Amino acid sequence: MCEYMILEDFNMDKYIYDNSNGLWYELQGDYYIPCLVLPDEKEERHIGIWGHRHLRYIREHKKVFYTDLLISGKLQSYLADVEEQAQELFDRLMKQRAEREGITETLKAENQMLWVGRMNALRSAVTETVNTEVIFV
């Protein structure tokens, strides 16, 4: 049998405290739901477009994995790692493919419109590669 202490500062029906487990409960409809808070992550790291794309993907397609990361407090760190990995791959592929396809600063100086068109096509191709290899995995 649980011992409950009702906090008088709140509406008496809204919040109760369970002495046996040390948790507060909030009345939601006809049920008392524990007032739980996720643990704070130790470090704040940048999450950019790649991390957000991956977050959207795991939220929609890998719900158990997403929930495990969220509950364990490792989601932010995981997404930051994905962000770094994807950005490094993107930068490396852009440089390699631009050199291989002859998209240089000389071309940019001589024919800007051609350079922009080729860079946009290259960026689209590299983005698709990063999405396939890192983001939607």
UniProtKB/TrEMBL annotation:
InterPro entries: TnpV
Name used for this protein in its record: TnpV protein
Domain of life: Bacteria
